[in-house]
Specification:
With about 140 residues, the protein is α/β, with parallel strands linked by helices. Helices cover about 35% and strands about 20% of the residues. The chain contains 4 helices and 7 strands. The protein has a 5-stranded mixed beta sheet with strand order 4-3-2-5-6, with helices on one face. The protein has a two-stranded parallel ribbon with strand order 1-7. The longest helix has 17 residues.
């Protein structure tokens, strides 16, 4: 009797995809939660102004960030590096500008940053690209 029961059984040849869907959804949730924490850069408290939004950049751009402690950071899209002194930052900036003459430059500075740090940075940028300096601020209503 047991032989007859074994012959009538069919093998299940379909793949059970429910565990794969479960794993995929868990990974999706993990990436959605973790993505905001992977944003790199210096945490800045930008000054608030009434200025309007800038038009989108048409080409390559670099964002320079200056913290209130005097640290400099350059965001080139895929990588961002932190510099602890203006001299090291200026040497690296000079290399980037010489290799990318058509790059657009954005400057972000914390509202408590020393004016001297911003002035030095603006002067450095003006030496290489006097026509492309953009200051990034936050709108007044964004509190």
């Amino acid at each position: 009797m047991s032989k007859r029961r074994a012959k009538n059984r069919k093998l299940l040849t379909e793949i059970n995809v429910i565990p794969y869907v479960d794993v995929s959804l868990v990974l999706l949730v993990i990436f959605m939660v973790a993505t905001p924490f992977m944003i790199q850069g210096i945490d800045l408290d930008l000054p608030k102004t009434e200025s309007g939004a800038l038009n989108k950049s048409k080409g390559d751009n670099v964002t320079i960030s200056i913290s209130k402690e005097g640290y400099y950071s350059m965001d080139l899209g895929e990588q961002e590096k932190l510099y602890e002194s203006f001299q090291v930052f200026s040497k690296q900036f000079e290399k980037i500008i010489k290799n990318n003459p058509n790059i657009e430059i954005f400057v972000r500075a914390d509202r408590e940053t020393r004016y001297d740090n911003v002035a030095q940075t603006m002067s450095l940028i003006k030496n290489f690209k006097s026509d492309s300096i953009n200051l990034i601020t936050e709108p007044l209503g964004n509190e």
